[in-house]
């Protein structure tokens, strides 16, 4: 029986520099992140644009090109959208990775939805600065809000005709605006 090769973080960074792919790193393993559909890309742009407008410059909205590093677990990943409401803090191990997002957004896809809502969320919840995670559904007009509440987390489903309201960062986004012009039924 052979075991999978374990990579150092330095080897991960070297591999990342040599490819056009987005690669995730965790516990010595490097994972290629799934490519998205046009609808996935459109939903990412829509939610990022709406967040940027709603936050009116009080926070910085970043695309999926921004790497987030979870210091508590060692996960390096590229959320679909990241929001920073404080000056960025670089990971000690990686000056191109940020450790202090306030809000993270994942647009779901059939191949990654279970991981995003499960194990990846467990990692995200270990980020002290993180106040909320949004999951934008690829199946229907629905946004799941996972928001820090005291020492725990509260999950709320927000559907068509309703508004996503966040306490931190403070903003309100109509679900229908996220999906405007995007066909998730195909």
Instruction: Please state the structural category.
Output: alpha+beta
What oligomeric arrangement do these chains adopt?
single chain
Strand order within the widest beta sheet: 3-6-9-10-11-12
Number of strands: 14
H and E string = HEEHEEEEEEEHEEEEEH
Let me know the largest β-sheet. 6 strands, mixed
Strand content: 25-35%
- Span from first to last CA? 43 Å
The best one-word shape is globular
Enumerate the spans where pLDDT stays under 50 for 5 or more consecutive residues: none
Architecture blueprint of SSEs:
Layout: H1 9-17, E1 23-26, E2 29-32, H2 38-55, E3 60-62, E4 67-70, E5 75-77, E6 81-84, E7 90-91, E8 94-98, E9 103-107, H3 113-124, E10 132-136, E11 142-149, E12 152-159, E13 163-166, E14 171-174, H4 175-179
Parallel strand pairs: 4-8, 9-10
Antiparallel strand pairs: 1-2, 3-6, 4-5, 6-9, 7-8, 10-11, 11-12, 13-14
Short description:
By secondary structure, the protein is of the alpha+beta class. It is 24% helix and 34% strand. α3 links the parallel β9 (103-107) and β10 (132-136).
How would you describe what is shown here?
This protein is α+β, with helices and mostly antiparallel strands and about 190 residues long. It contains 4 helices and 14 strands. It has helices spanning about 10-15, 40-55, 115-125, 175-180; strands at about 25, 30, 60, 65-70, 75, 80-85, 90, 95-100, 105, 130-135, 140-150, 150-160, 165, 170-175. It has a 6-stranded mixed β-sheet, with helices on both faces. The protein has a 4-stranded mixed β-sheet with strand order 5-4-8-7, with no helix packed on it. The longest helix has 18 residues, at about 40-55. The chain is globular. The N and C termini lie far apart (about 45 Å).
